[in-house]
Amino acid sequence: MKLSDIILTEEKGASRTILIKLIHDIGADRFAEIIADLRDENLQDQIVAAFGMYTKDGSEYIKPDILNEDDHGDGYEKGNVKLIGDMILPIGKQKVLQAEDDKYNRGLLVTNKKDKSYDIAYWADKLKPYPIEVEIDGKSVSKDAKVINLLFHPEMK
Which residue ranges make up each domain of the chain? Predict the structure, then answer.
């Protein structure tokens, strides 16, 4: 039997109890963000089906919007836009990308802004902007840039 089957289907299983406690401890919004970041969309759907959120008094069942079918995966259709990338960058929330590297903890901090621009920063060891050289079209424009802003293309407004 697969571990996901045990966690998701056994009503009195210890793993299920621990996960339910985690949901209540961190809150529905944070739990929804974690589940939305999973790469396996089938697992996302299984978890949502098994662990929908209840209000604190237990009277109302809540399925967080971020986990609804229209908000992730192939079903993403806000304004008829189909998901063709690896993930949707939410507006106003910084996402941390980590490079596959066996020597250093490093990556990018990316924010999709309301004005349709992006803030991008390199990080190393700590999740804060770290100075890095920036080249544009093969020419160095800065040796110690921290935050790069990519503006929205005016013809796409």
Answer: 3-78, 94-156
